[in-house]
Design a protein that fits this description.
The chain has about 325 residues and is mostly helical. The protein has a single domain, classed as P1 Nuclease (Orthogonal Bundle). Helix content is about 55%, strand content about 0%. It is built from 14 helices and no strands. The structure holds zinc ion (ZN). The site of zinc ion has 6 residues, from α5 and α9.
Length: about 325
């Protein structure tokens, strides 16, 4: 008895989506759904009542970008660190400072992901303060998406799809094909959410760490490619052409993706787990900063009661590192 009507509408929108970069639908859904269970109990019960919405909504920012073609959306998903004249340590820390320093056209071209995360945090905090259920859920789910993007190394680089190093297609390979093929072995259980004393600082700590992984990720793929027979790298269609996935990127053979996944030594799983932790931490921090409003009273007591049985089951499954009932349309 969750918000079925809303879910049905969102599912309908998703089924029309053919393009959705940034962790793909698989990654974003796993991140948001897992983050619900990582919340302290005072928040977890409320978020669980709306877990299907929070899970489905995780993919909506990409739908706004690609399917609805909302021009304002794109730059919220990335930051091309190398395109800014300063080093990452000297970039403006807050969105206010960034707007004062750069014209809109520059921010839109080079991306403003870390600053947008801070803006979303302010909005989410306000919605908790005002106890507006729909806004809390919508903003929290969207924020989970952007925090997920902030953990994808190629979302912090000009070399977004390996186009500058002759590695085109690596974006989707790393964030979609690998987790969709190997995610069943990942552990989605992370420690309970903790309070972030300085949101700005934490956002930049995440971005810096993610950006450090760019060169490593690209170098690892180059090394794997160098040792692999050329005709064993991509899957071919009946006519001998390279097979493309739903994102329009080449599909790699299972042998090649295994070799790359092994060589990454857990990087994809680690970044997904860090995304879950960050999402739960940011949600929790917004709630604490809003004065810890009572969330249980926002829902009908009957709804919470009806969900109780499933809540306990799903929470226990997650405690063992897995997620129940997570259907992803059109996986690899
Ligand atoms: Zn995105």
């Amino acid at each position: 008895m969750k918000t079925f009507k809303t879910i049905a509408i969102i599912a309908l929108i998703i089924s029309f989506t053919s393009l959705a970069f940034a962790w793909g639908v698989w990654g974003h859904k796993h991140i948001n759904k897992s983050a619900v269970f990582a919340l302290p109990e005072s928040m977890r019960v409320f978020f669980y009542n709306h877990i299907d919405f929070v899970t489905q909504e995780s993919a909506i920012p990409d739908i706004r970008k690609y399917t609805i073609n909302d021009k304002a959306e794109g730059p919220r998903h990335y930051i091309d660190i190398e395109a800014y004249p300063q080093s990452i340590d000297n970039l403006p820390q807050s969105s206010k400072e960034a707007s004062a320093k750069y014209p809109d056209s520059i921010l839109r071209r080079n991306g403003f992901l870390p600053w947008y995360i801070q803006d979303m945090m302010d909005k989410l905090t306000l919605s908790f303060k005002e106890r507006k259920t729909t806004e809390i859920l919508f903003l929290a789910a969207d924020l989970g998406h952007y925090l997920g993007d902030a953990h994808m190394p190629l979302h912090t680089s000009l070399n977004h799809d390996g186009q500058l190093t002759n590695q085109r297609g690596i974006h989707s390979f790393w964030e979609s094909q690998l987790p969709e093929q190997y995610g069943h072995s990942y552990n989605f259980c992370v420690p309970e959410a903790k309070y972030i004393t300085d949101v700005k600082k934490e956002t930049w700590r995440i971005l810096k760490h993610t950006h450090l992984l760019v060169d490593t990720l690209l170098a690892i793929e180059r090394n794997v490619k160098a040792t692999f027979p050329e005709d064993k790298i991509y899957l071919k269609d009946a006519k001998g052409g390279i097979l493309k996935n739903k994102y329009g990127s080449p599909v790699h053979t299972p042998e090649y993706s295994k070799a790359f996944h092994d060589a990454l030594k857990g990087m994809v799983e680690k970044q997904i787990r860090s995304s879950i932790t960050a999402t739960a931490d940011f949600w929790y921090t917004a709630w604490v900063n809003a004065g810890k409003p009572d969330l249980t009273s926002l829902d009908d007591a009957e709804l919470t009661k009806q969900n109780q049985k499933y809540y306990i089951e799903d929470y226990n499954v997650w405690k063992n590192g897995k997620l129940t009932k997570l259907k992803i349309e059109g996986e690899f």
